[in-house]
Specification:
Strand order of the largest sheet: 3-2-4-5-7-6
CATH class of the largest domain: Alpha Beta
Structural class: alpha/beta
Low-confidence stretches: none
CATH architecture of the largest domain: 3-Layer(aba) Sandwich
Number of strands: 20
Radius of gyration: 24 Å
Largest sheet: 6 strands, parallel
Strand content: 15-25%
């Protein structure tokens, strides 16, 4: 191959794209192959010792895997899909990354540039399609610009409030031969809090009698940042809640843990949050789930809020704040780590924790499978560094209420409520953390959206354990349906397969649990198998939530 200017070897656009991923430190790319990026696939073949190409079965699953890996590591995840239908299938994962503030780069194969605006086979304008779902959308039509645009894509994905970037790669561009240098990550010092920020936080805290911290932000936090902010919060005796699906940010067994403020939050915690006279919003956007539909606080700022967030545009976006601090949350945590006030709120902190402990007590649910007690027994069995990957749905509120995610463990779930996230997220986590125990949590409805991705686990040699909560219905929608239209069941009943036999067909380990005492032995056998495993928990359809039965909901609807 002839040399280019300056003695550089000419490379195809496909090779340049693969090399650009290497230059950015990418270790895995999750993909469903397509003819629109054959040259990139060939470039990845040349880099197969540096980037593992994870072959997935559905584009949504591929992006969920990449997003989960990014959420758990803080490094941008990479997914690659083909044009048209592939990109459309991938869109849900982009939306997850956007609402979860997860750094992600999605590469989309594109039609030849010369066929643009003819509605050619699988043609889509991705700038329009992804505009509301991504931080930035671009298309590379000139191979010479690959290093520039790919480097910028990763910069945008990881900067400020992290999020997804979509890069369309036109077909013939990938065949062009050009000689250009690779561009690696640029060194950017994270935003530190303003010099007066810490002293102003302490001054507001010194005036408080009932402070409450709310941690959010997911991938924004490093392990060091979490440790630093935990030290500050615990030393100053501040009760701490986490925002929706952020259970891994704070030790759930700590006497300072208040619970999760999200969908299905405990009424006791919500009441305490309304009693608070100072809110420390650390990384959270204070969005709809955490604010309980924007009813938690007065938007004009009657309750003082200190909000720390890397994106100034998110500070005070809905709730006016007493103090906004634009900063990297980890740098803020390090800056305030050693600071102390004279806490006067020991009784308040104890009362907030007591509310959490009271709602975590397992009731005497009817039927042979008490899901609360089974999950609490399971909690004692899981590895101290286990990773939990959770789908969306009513089943998840059982976990939130009754299980403690402890320090050293990780948790990921979709804040946008995307069903079908749990199985691919568990596989992405297992690939990201080989050797760690990974447990996926999913309802029967969500499992049959992306459960086929279990094939990817077998193909790539990882062994997550999937818990399928089966009540033969779309439980969340049935709950709302019974509240609004009691006894008029429409569209929410499901017919399911034998889930244990499903995974056994792949050569995995399957179990069925119908009684409380069966879950722990089934889990032990699943772990001992060393294979991808699935445990189906056959739950009582009548117990549609952890706080109400269908009969309860119907009675409430009649009264209302």
């Amino acid at each position: 191959m002839p040399d280019g200017a300056g003695g550089m070897v000419k490379r195809t656009g496909g090779q340049l794209l693969a090399d650009a991923l290497v230059a950015q430190g990418v270790t895995h790319a999750f993909a469903v192959p397509g003819e629109s990026y054959l040259d990139l696939l060939d470039g990845l073949y040349a880099q197969r010792n540096r980037i593992e190409l994870v072959t997935c079965r559905f584009e949504a699953g591929a992006v969920h895997m990449a997003e989960a890996q990014a959420k758990l590591t803080g490094r941008p995840g990479v997914a690659i899909v083909t044009r048209g239908p592939g990109a459309c299938h991938a869109a849900i994962g982009v939306h997850v990354a956007f609402q979860d503030s997860t750094p992600l780069v999605l590469l989309v194969g594109q039609i030849p540039v010369g066929e643009t605006d003819r509605e050619t086979f699988q043609e889509v304008d991705y700038r329009q399609m992804f505009a509301p779902l991504a931080k930035w959308v671009t298309q590379i039509d000139d191979a010479a610009r690959i290093p520039e645009l790919m480097a910028h894509a990763f910069d945008v994905a990881r900067s400020g409030r992290p999020g997804p970037v979509v890069v369309a790669i036109s077909e013939e561009m990938q065949k062009e031969l050009v000689a250009v240098p690779d561009l690696g990550p640029q060194r950017v010092l994270p935003a530190h809090p303003a010099p007066e920020a810490v002293s102003e936080v302490l001054a507001l805290l010194a005036k408080a009698e009932r402070p409450l911290a709310i941690m959010g932000g997911g991938a924004m936090w490093s392990a060091e940042g979490r440790a630093a902010i935990t030290e500050f919060l615990v030393a100053n005796d501040i009760p701490t809640a986490v925002s929706f699906r952020r259970l891994g940010l704070f030790d759930g067994s700590s006497p300072h843990f208040a619970g999760d403020l999200g969908v299905g939050a405990d009424a006791g915690l919500v009441a305490k949050a309304k009693e608070a006279d100072l809110i420390l919003a650390l990384g959270t956007r204070m969005g709809e789930p955490v604010s309980q539909g924007y009813t938690l606080l007065d938007m004009a700022g009657r309750t003082p809020i200190i909000q720390v967030h890397p994106d100034q545009g998110e500070i005070g976006r809905v709730y006016r704040v007493a103090l906004g601090i634009t900063a990297d949350v980890n740098r803020f945590a390090q800056a305030i780590r050693a600071e102390r006030v004279e806490p006067r709120w020991g009784e308040w902190r104890a009362a907030v924790r007591a509310a959490r402990e009271a709602q975590a007590q397992a009731p005497d649910y009817a039927g042979p499978l008490n899901l609360a007690r089974a999950l609490q027994a399971l909690e004692a069995e899981v590895a101290p560094d286990a990773v939990w990957a959770c789908d969306a749905g009513n089943f998840a509120t059982w976990f939130n209420r009754f299980v403690q995610v402890k320090a050293g463990q990780e948790f990921c779930g979709p804040t946008n409520g995307a069903m079908g996230y749990g199985v691919p997220a568990a596989i992405g986590a297992a690939i990201a953390f080989p050797g760690r125990q990974v447990i996926g949590l999913v309802g029967d409805g969500g499992f049959l959206m992306t459960g086929q991705e279990i094939a990817t686990a077998f193909h790539h040699g990882v062994a997550p354990i999937i818990l399928v909560f089966n009540n033969n219905m779309y439980g969340t929608i049935r709950m709302y349906q019974e509240r609004a239209y009691p006894e008029r069941v429409s569209g929410t009943a499901l017919t399911n397969p034998d889930f244990a036999r499903f995974i056994e067909a792949f050569g995995g380990h399957g179990e069925v649990v119908e009684r409380t005492e069966e879950l722990v032995p089934a889990f032990r056998r699943a772990v001992a198998s060393g294979k991808p495993a699935l445990i189906e928990l056959r739950t009582d359809p009548e117990q549609v939530t952890n706080r109400a039965t269908i009969t309860d909901l119907r009675a409430q609807a009649r009264k209302g």
